[in-house]
């Protein structure tokens, strides 16, 4: 019980860290955006403007105030990226706290800690944040920060309030090493798809802004995301990895179903939606290589695919009454 | 930024396809064209050349057929069919399906007679075997075959062909590098080719060295053309073919499988014969002779439930201890658990359910034993509150007797006389019975569900207030039936039963193999970089050799520049070269660092995106 409580506390702490990280990242984007506006404003001196714009337009986050220090960040010409730096540190911290929370939960229940919706939410959020900080190690992807951490915080709060169940053992159908493999891989895929989804949404927004969509006119921060082509490339790479993992999830699920339920495929609602997700992402891969469908249209497939992923996780568990009703909620 | 364009996408998209190369219609693939081919004036819309083809149906029926076929095997149609497949799969998760829950379908039809009938007519309760769902996936697979067969041929030829010739101009390619060296062009070409080819046993690139005569203003040159990543296409074909294999295996399984379900109580058994099963399904190619005549006895059944408060009464473990007797008479003890089916004689036996089968004896008014059997009671909740029916048609005289009972493994009876179960284990069992008499309707030849008693035409036994009488019977007790019907007795021990599901599907190994091949092919095709590198070496006016290189990749490939740089890294840079090496297009930051080492190009490239 001790450990279970500590695990819950850590989840709240991680949610808080992610929320603050989101504010810091948002402040960073606002600051960049301000810098851009200022660049155009030839009346002012550019050095002053960088700091000034941050103060005016930045959200009231620690990042925004800390960013006003004398040293502008090494990367930005005139703009400090301290907000992004704070966001990154908090993301790392949140990932670490979540990891510990998950391990403690596993110890408290005496089994693999991903057997119900609550635990799935914890691990999925951890993977999404970990993929984000991991991607940031190899390339510049901090523009994703506000959205990944924001989604992560929402997921954790939702998990804590809507999906929480006490740590305990599982029924016989779940006592299998495939629980570790099949569900584990599914969660990793979901976490990666989350980051890819954020990337594709930003790609669509940026693309629309570049084309002059009126309501995006005020979202100056979008100019500081990489080009739509670069974001599409990043999203594809993540989606490709996740798609292979998802394929494995389905195969692993079928092997397990063969052992547990006496058939490898039975069009149970969860199976149907896993199939739908798979087909939508297969369509995405085809769209990317089909003339007239690459770019924007392909990105919409990512949005549709991720919607199906979310529905598969929430709707199918809570609405339909299938063999997969392992949410632990009744 | 440097990566703004999808590398190569615009550069060659309008080039003519290489003769003899098959490309599905509508594919957007910078690799499908010969990069060296002449480029038509730019500004043509993307739908030039290849886009022309599907536009006009030819003359007459053959032309029409060919046109239809080309449409069907085009990327665009494959994409549409995939989208349709996703949409078509959804109703099956929303509406109840006969295969899974025929009862729920009947209920739905009862609740929504009009809508239900229409839905039924269009197969919405059998979505995955419906005409429309089948049509979508069959068309998709026809499209797949039409696409994959010619692609396989084309790939086979590509595997044995030489890498494509060196294009005349390098400026259009997404990765470029150049270096000036004192080596002679022949040596340059040898070194670069060796470097690109890599280890002898596991070559990276296929390379081809050629000479180019002087042409236009350009002196004679030595060139290398190299290509790697053929496995990408191999993997892709493998993946698509494996999907086909998967479909065929699943279909074979449908035809050949059989499945029988039986309820077996402790101490009893069953034989693997069609008649011994309570229900039996089979594919249309099934033959009864393929049933191996083994038999099996259930020796004991163990169950465990959580007793801690958090998950009170949640199931923790079920084990059926059985003895299998082979046709030759050998016997062996086995266990069946929820995740561990028993594999015997090519069939798998699953533990699908369990419950109590109390032994119930009914003695009629004349003192004759009219019924004595174990009656399986179906659990209805987590506490194993279980429902069962006893039908006693063979009464010596008077009305037939029907009993509807609840079996409560751990019974608690409250002050009002209502009983309920509080734990799934038989700690304090109690049988609660309602008694009916009349004509059970068993003699008219209509099959009846053994778990249902149609009470409409029967007379219930009631107490003085007119309420239905409830008899409470404990193990080992005999209780008088009301209205002088006789007595009912519950056996001392309460045997357990297990619901077993025996399945034989000879296609399983094939299904698994094709699924894994598909997975492997997919990974190969998504993660193998497919690259072409071209190098041209010419002697310049000052006697040094100017080496230029260009690279093209299939899809987005951040490693491409590094590959090109690595190819040239084996060349000693000439001291005479005072000019800095030329940078790649729009890549000024990366160009400066490039000569320092093989990987700095891509490192610098990454840096330029960090701002
Ligand atoms: C059962 C239906 C199909 C499924 C599930 C499927 C799935 C996939 C997947 C997952 C990929 C990604 C691999 C990659 O990008 O390299 C792919 C690629 C591809 N598919 Fe399919 N496919 C199907 C049918 C078809 C059909 C009918 C065609 C031909 C018209 C086709 C042509 C291609 C081609 C050309 C690629 C390579 C795309 C590229 O260049 O990356 N596929 N397919």
Automatic annotation (TrEMBL), chain A:
Subcellular location: Membrane
The protein, known as: C-type cytochrome biogenesis protein CcsB
Compositionally biased tracts (Low complexity): 54-65
Residue segments, region Disordered: 53-78
Species this chain originates from: Myceligenerans salitolerans
Signal peptide (UniProt feature, chain positions): none
Membrane topology per record: Multi-pass membrane protein
One family name in Pfam for this protein: Cytochrom_C_asm
Domain of life: Bacteria
Residue ranges of every copy of the Cytochrome c assembly protein domain listed in the record: 126-324
Membrane-spanning intervals of the chain: 6-27, 90-108, 120-138, 143-165, 177-202, 238-257, 272-287, 299-320
Keywords: Cytochrome c-type biogenesis, Membrane, Transmembrane, Transmembrane helix
From TrEMBL, chain B:
Domain of life: Bacteria
Disordered as annotated region, ranges: 1-56, 571-611
Topology term for the membrane: Multi-pass membrane protein
Ranges that cross the membrane: 77-95, 131-150, 237-256, 508-527
Compartments, record wording: Membrane
Keywords for the protein's UniProt record, in alphabetical order: Cytochrome c-type biogenesis, Membrane, Transmembrane, Transmembrane helix
Keyword Lipoprotein: no
Subcellular location, principal: membrane
Domain ResB-like: 75-565
Protein name: Cytochrome c biogenesis protein ResB
Organism: Myceligenerans salitolerans
Highest classification ranks of the organism: Bacteria, Bacillati, Actinomycetota, Actinomycetes, Micrococcales
């Amino acid at each position: 019980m001790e450990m279970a409580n500590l695990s819950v506390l850590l989840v709240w702490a991680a949610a808080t860290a992610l929320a603050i990280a989101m504010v810091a990242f948002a402040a960073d984007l606002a600051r960049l955006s301000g810098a851009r506006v200022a660049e155009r404003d030839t009346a002012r001196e550019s050095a002053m403007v960088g700091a000034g714009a941050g103060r005016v337009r930045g959200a009231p986050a620690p990042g925004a105030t800390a960013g006003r220090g004398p040293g502008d960040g090494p990367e930005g010409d005139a703009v400090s990226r301290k907000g992004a730096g704070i966001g990154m540190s908090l993301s790392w911290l949140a990932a670490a706290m979540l990891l510990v929370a998950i391990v403690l939960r596993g110890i408290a229940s005496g089994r693999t800690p991903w057997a119900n919706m609550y635990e799935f939410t914890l691990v999925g959020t951890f993977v999404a944040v970990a993929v984000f900080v991991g991607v940031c190690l190899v390339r510049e992807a901090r523009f994703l920060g506000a959205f990944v951490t924001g989604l992560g915080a929402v997921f954790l709060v939702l998990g804590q309030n809507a999906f929480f169940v006490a740590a305990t053992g599982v029924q016989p159908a779940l006592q299998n090493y495939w629980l570790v493999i099949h569900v584990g891989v599914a969660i990793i895929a979901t976490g990666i798809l989350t980051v890819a989804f954020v990337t594709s949404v930003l790609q669509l927004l940026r693309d629309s802004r570049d084309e002059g969509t009126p309501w995006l006119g005020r979202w100056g921060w979008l100019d500081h995301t990489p080009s739509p082509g670069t974001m599409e490339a990043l999203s594809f790479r993540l989606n490709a990895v996740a798609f292979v993992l998802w394929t494995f999830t389905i195969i692993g699920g079928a092997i397990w179903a063969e052992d547990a339920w006496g058939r490898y495929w039975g069009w149970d609602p969860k199976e149907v939606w896993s199939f739908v997700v798979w087909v939508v992402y297969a369509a995405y891969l085809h769209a990317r290589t089909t003339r007239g469908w690459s770019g924007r249209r392909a990105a919409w497939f990512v949005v549709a695919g991720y919607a199906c992923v979310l529905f598969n996780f929430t709707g199918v568990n809570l609405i339909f009454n299938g063999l997969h009703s392992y949410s632990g909620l009744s | 930024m440097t990566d703004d364009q999808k590398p190569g996408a615009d550069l060659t998209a309008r080039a003519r396809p290489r003769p003899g190369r098959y490309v599905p219609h509508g594919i957007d693939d910078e690799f499908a064209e010969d990069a060296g081919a002449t480029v038509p004036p730019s500004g043509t819309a993307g739908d030039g050349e290849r886009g022309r083809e599907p536009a006009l149906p030819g003359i007459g029926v053959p032309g029409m057929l060919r046109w239809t076929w080309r449409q069907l095997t085009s990327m665009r149609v494959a994409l549409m069919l995939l989208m349709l497949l996703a949409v078509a799969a959804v109703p099956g998760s929303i509406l109840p399906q006969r295969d899974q829950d025929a009862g729920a379908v009947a209920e739905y039809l009862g609740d929504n007679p009009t809508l239900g009938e229409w839905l039924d007519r269009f197969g919405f309760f059998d979505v995955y075997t419906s005409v429309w769902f089948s049509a979508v996936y069959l068309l998709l697979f026809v499209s797949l075959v039409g696409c994959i067969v010619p692609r396989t041929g084309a790939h086979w030829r590509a595997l044995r062909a030489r890498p494509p010739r060196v294009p005349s101009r390098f400026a259009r390619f997404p990765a470029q590098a150049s270096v000036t060296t004192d080596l002679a062009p022949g040596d340059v070409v040898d070194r670069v080719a060796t470097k690109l080819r890599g280890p002898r046993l596991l070559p990276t690139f296929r390379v081809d060295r050629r000479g180019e005569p002087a042409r236009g203003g350009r002196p004679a040159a030595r060139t290398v053309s190299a290509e790697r990543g053929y496995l990408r296409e191999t993997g892709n074909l493998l993946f698509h073919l494996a999907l086909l294999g998967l479909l065929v295996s699943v279909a074979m399984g449908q035809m050949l499988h059989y499945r029988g379900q039986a309820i077996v109580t402790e101490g009893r058994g069953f034989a693997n014969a069609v008649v011994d099963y309570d229900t039996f399904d089979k594919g249309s190619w099934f033959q009864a002779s393929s049933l191996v005549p083994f038999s099996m006895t259930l020796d004991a059944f163990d169950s465990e439930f959580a007793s801690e408060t958090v998950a009170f009464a949640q199931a923790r473990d079920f084990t059926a201890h059985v003895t299998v007797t082979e046709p030759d008479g050998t016997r062996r003890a086995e266990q069946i658990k929820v995740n561990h089916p028993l594999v015997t004689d090519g069939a798998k036996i699953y533990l699908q359910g369990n419950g109590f089968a109390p032994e119930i004896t009914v003695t009629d008014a004349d003192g004759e034993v009219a019924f004595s059997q174990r009656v399986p009671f179906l659990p209805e909740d987590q506490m194993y509150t279980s429902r069962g029916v006893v039908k006693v048609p063979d009464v010596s005289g008077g009305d037939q007797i029907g009993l509807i009972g609840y079996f409560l493994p751990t019974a608690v009876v409250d002050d009002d006389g209502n009983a309920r179960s509080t734990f799934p284990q038989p700690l304090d069992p109690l049988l609660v019975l309602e008694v009916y008499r009349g004509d059970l309707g068993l003699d008219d030849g209509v099959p009846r569900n053994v778990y249902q008693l149609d009470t409409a035409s029967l007379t219930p036994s009631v107490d003085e207030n007119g309420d239905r009488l409830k008899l409470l019977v404990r193990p080992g007790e005999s209780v008088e039936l009301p209205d002088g019907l006789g007595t009912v007795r519950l056996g001392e021990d309460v045997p357990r039963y297990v619901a077993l599901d025996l399945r034989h599907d000879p296609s399983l190994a094939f299904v698994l193999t094709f699924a894994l091949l598909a997975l492997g092919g997919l990974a190969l095709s998504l993660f193998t970089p497919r690259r072409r590198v071209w190098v041209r070496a010419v002697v310049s006016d000052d006697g040094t050799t100017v080496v230029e290189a260009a690279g093209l990749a299939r899809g987005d490939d951040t490693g491409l520049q590094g590959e090109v740089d690595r190819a040239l890294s084996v060349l000693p840079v000439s001291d005479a070269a005072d000019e800095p090496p030329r940078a790649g297009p729009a890549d000024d930051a990366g160009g400066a660092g490039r000569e320092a080492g093989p990987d700095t190009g891509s490192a610098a490239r990454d840096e330029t995106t960090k701002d």
